[in-house]
Design goal:
The chain is an alpha+beta fold. The protein folds into three domains: 13-74; 78-208, TATA-Binding Protein (2-Layer Sandwich); 211-368, no CATH class. Helices cover 29% and strands 26% of the residues. The chain is built from twelve helices and twelve strands. It has helices at residues 13-20, 27-36, 46-54, 60-74, 92-95, 102-105, 177-196, 216-225, 278-281, 316-321, 346-355, 358-368; strands at residues 78-85, 113-115, 122-124, 127-140, 150-162, 167-174, 207-208, 235-247, 267-270, 289-302, 305-314, 329-337. Strands 1, 2, 3, 4, 5, 6, 7, 8, 9, 10, 11 and 12 form a twelve-stranded antiparallel sheet that branches. A hairpin with a 4-residue loop joins strand 5 and strand 6 (167-174). The protein is globular, with a radius of gyration of 23 Å.
């Protein structure tokens, strides 16, 4: 089974068990297939649901359903943004290199992936100052199981001018970690090229939105400003459903949070309308807490799409290992559409929705990043 292609086989038995054990196949995905067969299992654990499915033959339609669940989760788009001052007068399409061999930008002697074909930049909506490169990346890892040894992933880089402020915006959309590595290499190459042709000053550096760029108080204001106090029209805030916080060891905790001292390293809170909880509404808590992730439910209506979604705004490297250089990353955890009969690519829809936050994400950062003052940009009322 190790040499077979997942797109050309229908796994059964042990091969199917290996596939179902992967983290991107959830217990809920398996239970959905079992439910369609009239099989109901009380347990939520995969240890119980996997045997119930592997003991019988799986249908092609059922395996396609599981493949879709896997792809939707692993290919879930995540967006990071950078800015840099721009001097050039030419259009961006005329300013980028005539061709870019993306694989040459990567140290392929030490990696197990490559970009397929020769992707290039094209104008978005015929705008020569907003251009994008889409690519497909192939990863081959013989050390993994047959189901995970050969994968392809999508990635993209979009660059556009903010003419009002003479700056260049670089938007990275990645899925698997390999696409993030590729996007970083491409962004670095593009900035270096623009400097070599005098479109960007040699002394300018790229600005990222990092955890360490905020005071503890302003980080609360920033994440709440993009959710609870968002001014966007296309997506409407409904409630905060999940937050990640940790005590700041360099600041004294308020008396009523003394229970966290030396006992809590990280705290994840799930619930409803958490914007009203003491952790988010009590401003006296903020100097002593690291707010590193906030998940909010929104109502969206954009590009012919309507529905609800949960957007996660967080600093993933800080959440994993308290790396204060972690860049903010936006991704959609859950999404539902009003028109369930319409054929919709979920990941394309997710990217469209996340793009709605880009302008507000950048402009709010300029207001609240160090040495900005801990106040919300007008006309908002302070939370």
């Amino acid at each position: 089974m190790s040499n077979q292609n997942i797109d050309s086989i229908l796994p059964q038995g042990e091969a199917l068990r290996t596939y179902l054990a992967q983290p991107y196949i959830g217990a809920g995905d398996i239970k959905t297939v079992l439910k369609s067969r009239g099989v109901f299992i009380n347990s939520q654990e995969k240890e119980q649901t996997i045997p119930a499915l592997t003991l019988s033959l799986i249908r092609p339609s059922e395996f396609s359903q599981l493949q879709l669940a896997y792809t939707t989760k692993e290919d879930n788009p995540k967006i990071t943004t950078q800015t840099i001052k721009w001097l050039g007068q030419d259009t961006l399409l005329d300013s980028v290199p005539d061709s870019i061999d993306v694989n040459k930008l990567l140290d392929l002697d030490f990696v197990n992936f490559k970009v397929l074909g020769t992707p290039g930049f094209y104008p978005v909506n015929k705008d020569l100052d907003t251009i994008r490169m889409d690519y497909l990346l192939e990863r081959i890892d013989r050390s993994k199981s047959w189901a995970d040894s050969h994968k392809t992933f999508k990635g993209s880089i979009e660059i556009k001018k903010n003419k009002a402020q003479d700056e260049l915006i670089l938007i990275s959309t990645h899925t698997a970690p390999e696409t993030r590595t590729t996007n970083k290499a491409m962004s670095k190459h593009l900035v270096s090229h623009f400097k070599s042709v005098k479109q960007i000053d040699e002394n300018e550096t790229v600005t990222s939105i990092r955890f360490c760029d905020f005071t503890n108080e302003n980080r609360f204001l920033y994440l709440l400003g993009l959710t609870h106090y968002s001014r966007l029209v296309a997506i409407t805030f409904l409630e905060i459903v999940d937050i990640g916080i940790a005590p700041d060891p360099d600041n004294m905790l308020p008396t009523d949070l003394g229970w966290m001292k030396e006992k809590i390293r990280n705290l994840d809170l799930k619930g409803f309308s958490l914007e009203d909880s003491d952790f988010l509404s009590n401003v006296t808590y903020r100097p002593s807490l690291f707010l590193h992730r906030l998940d909010a439910k929104f109502r969206f209506s954009t590009s012919g799409l309507d529905g609800n979604c949960v957007i996660s705004l967080g600093f993933p490297e800080f959440s994993a290992g308290q790396n204060k250089d972690s860049e903010i990353e936006l991704r959609i955890k859950q999404i539902t559409f009003d028109n369930t009969g319409k054929s919709i690519d979920k990941n394309d829809a997710k990217e469209t929705i996340l793009k709605e936050l880009e302008s507000e994400k950048i402009e709010t950062f300029k207001t609240l990043s160090i040495p900005g003052k801990p106040t919300m940009p007008k006309p908002l009322s302070p939370p």
